[in-house]
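Chains adopt folds. We examine one example:
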Amino acid sequence: MLMPPKEMEGILLVDKPGDHTSHDVVARLRGKLQLRRIGHAGTLDPMATGLLIILVGKATRVSQYLIGLDKEYEGTVELGKVTDTQDAEGEMMETRPVPPFTAAEITAAMAGFLGDQYQKPPMYSAVKIGGVPLYRSARKGVEVEREARFIRVMNWELTRLELPRFDFRLRCTKGTYVRTLAHDLGQKLGCGGHIAALRRTATEKFHVSQALTLDQINALSLPEIEKRLIAPRDAVPSLAR
């Protein structure tokens, strides 16, 4: 009697493009790998690029361990413009003049966001209230009361200043909305602001330099992809005990 083929299992690091949602990436990989059991360990906003941890086959069971890992980002804030989504994909709500800030002034304002804090999820997010994603209510113009969530910002540094934009590096806990940090920083500076670009560079020990683009994955055979999978026990040390 023939044994059924062994299901592919492991963790695949993907460099998400900016024109795909996290769900789009999962859907494309589901077709490529010919598997139904595929998920991810922490979504990225549609416009964001970078590291997306994909769980293949039985590796989906370690999702809870990987979602909780700290994240690192690089991005760009544009001051003087406030959007309804707090990023560049939203509709412009307000424009204000941008003072001639120095790097020291912006850095000092950023320092106020370091440490433990509570952050309210933005209306344009996938957080569900009463079973309904917030973004659906936002599209109807309905503001929903939502509970602030605990987050921690370990590091937020300015890396380049060219007003009205500046680049940054950020390290934070899971569940942190980087675009909300950008929005709140703009409010603190008095001119408003939004995220113009965002890239996840790392999730704990996993770095985007280890990831494959969708085009690279599409060019590989299934056995070649299987060789790139990380075993769950190597990704989650507690499983190896």
User: Anything to note?
Assistant: The mean pLDDT is 91.
